[in-house]
Amino acid sequence: MDILPPSCKNVLVIEDNHAILDVITLILQSESYKVTGLNKSADMMNHIEQFKPDLIILDIMLPDGDGRDLLKTLRSDASTAYIPVLMISARYTADNVQHGEFKPNGFLSKPFDIDDLLDRIEGILAGKTY
């Protein structure tokens, strides 16, 4: 097992498509992020409590929920309200997505470019909003 630098950030990916989840995980691990993935939202809050992510990548279309509802759950809980969220979607684009009351820190349509994904993640972790 490789020893990761202390600057390494934890990223939680919630994505039901295993291929996309695997690709995002491999890309981020190659950039020295510590990554864990969920393919549904059921255990999200327990998982966040244990893993303490610095960023959450959240798919809008999940088999057991809507990512926008999960974002509301995150933003409404004092223990998770501060965690930056990058939303991803195959169905929606930046032009037609309706986030509702709570906005994510960034949004990417699938399929996305790997460099765009990494740029968004680095930007969001640096405090930017897209």
UniProtKB/TrEMBL annotation:
The modification 4-aspartylphosphate is found at residue 59. Residues 10-125 form the Response regulatory domain. Keywords: Phosphoprotein. Transmembrane segments: none annotated. One of its GO terms (biological process) is phosphorelay signal transduction system. Pfam families: Response_reg. This is Response regulator receiver domain-containing protein. The lineage of its organism: Bacteria, Pseudomonadati, Bacteroidota, Sphingobacteriia, Sphingobacteriales.
